[in-house]
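Final report, closing paragraph on structural work. Over the funding period we assembled a curated collection of sequence-structure pairs, and we close with a single example.
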Amino acid sequence: MLGMIINEKELKELEYMIKKEMDELIFDLEDTRIDIIVKKAMYDRYQVLFQLFRRVATEQEVLKYIPNYKF
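Its predicted structure, as stored:
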């Protein structure tokens, strides 16, 4: 287990970066041209990012990004 001490500004920046990355992944997961194997890897990455996001975001923000993609 690791810990970090960050201020409010850094917390908001971290939240912003994670949200943008998750938005990109959501967009790509909806692309029909991408192979299912690649989508599975992208979804695995999304799950990791979502777990990080849960630690820094408000409950309302987290609800917007709950993974609902099924293979």
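Helices lie at 8-29, 36-56, 59-64. The mean pLDDT is 93. We thank the funder for supporting this effort.
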